């Protein structure tokens, strides 16, 4: 099985501060990687580099073999990205916003309409398709962001806190959606919710201060009978001591 | 080029989805109209042309265009949508050109809505409509030049007030560079710079258009001026997008 996401020695410095420090891992088709870590650990920075929003200070990554530094546009085509907080243009309606994203991705005419319709139905947005996004609840806004990431059925998904701020039912829906898509994609999600990792992820990567501290299946992490919480605390605080 | 046009379409629609469009166009039309008839002496001059109108447009744009551009990138940063836009498969350059084209088209709409002045002058006399057309073209190019400066400056800072003030200052620098005050001061003290100042002055170039003279050199000036600032904008964006 070839890896769809290959990260090699990815490093990002802000002045003298190293936000992401020599991170290396790869993700194969069918894997859902839970990206865990305390606030400021470098999760979002790593994801932003993968999505081509930030340039790495050193190292690189490949999305479906396309280098994010040398071929950013080709890499972005293979990737669906949900930025932190799921930003959208508030004055646009759901359908206009998704059509805009589809058009930028090169879809036209009936294919564009089909893509938008499929993405809306997968994220249960049909009921609000004509509403301006600013009038929607947080859960719906998050789903608009998700729909945008799924639009072009990318082989790779990078979702920054996809369930943050959602109620338990909405969280469940999003997790179901991720599970459903998992077999044919390589997915990275970042989260603060440790149960989520056990629920949807096939693999957990814990980072703190920009370094990868653990890379194992959720079952392996809790093998010695400790809870996920304890493992997380031991790893992320242990480093600081 | 297609992604740039898609961005431009979205941006253009966004102007009209918010009160920005109404406020900008109404204020522009009120100021342009009233200045033409009062300070410009449209009636008392007794000449069938739009010179009084064209003489005020660059000065109106000096304040109004930076009001348009100050939010161009700052707003994307505030909403976080810059992260969305620049992780779609488009280059920084395409995003820059798209935003610029939308703002330029918007200025063209504002200018086109001054058509009652043109109707009035045609009703009252027999103006040279070719000269008027070239004047309008000049106005549009001035708007483009100011937009390009303002957009580049707005990519520099998250703060919209700073972006506005710097853009007005930047535009004023190029607007006034050819004015007698500046050129006389320079020819007395730094003669080499006097020619440079006259050469880069937006108002000097614009004056030709209001007289009905459209020269390739002036066109080239505006094209390279706009191109230079858009290029600068893309470079700034590429380096500061994540800040």
TrEMBL record, chain A:
Database matches in PROSITE patterns: ABC_TRANSPORTER_2
Signal peptide: none
Domain of life per record: Bacteria
Pfam families: ABC_tran
Entry keyword annotation includes Transport: yes
Keywords: ATP-binding, Nucleotide-binding, Transport
Record-annotated ABC transporter domain positions: 5-234
UniProt-listed InterPro entries: AAA+_ATPase, ABC_transporter-like_ATP-bd, P-loop_NTPase
Record GO terms (molecular function): ATP binding
Record-stated family: Belongs to the ABC transporter superfamily.
Protein known as: ABC transporter ATP-binding protein
Organism: Roseococcus pinisoli
Lineage summary: Bacteria, Pseudomonadati, Pseudomonadota, Alphaproteobacteria, Acetobacterales
From TrEMBL, chain B:
Keyword DNA-binding: no
Protein name: ABC transporter permease subunit
Species lineage: Bacteria, Pseudomonadati, Pseudomonadota, Alphaproteobacteria, Acetobacterales
Chloroplast listed as a keyword: no
Keyword terms of this UniProt record: Cell membrane, Membrane, Transmembrane, Transmembrane helix
Transmembrane segments: 12-33, 53-74, 95-119, 131-149, 161-182, 219-237
Subcellular localization, as worded in the UniProt entry: Cell membrane
Annotated membrane topology: Multi-pass membrane protein
Domain ABC-2 type transporter transmembrane: from-to ranges: 53-183
Main location: membrane
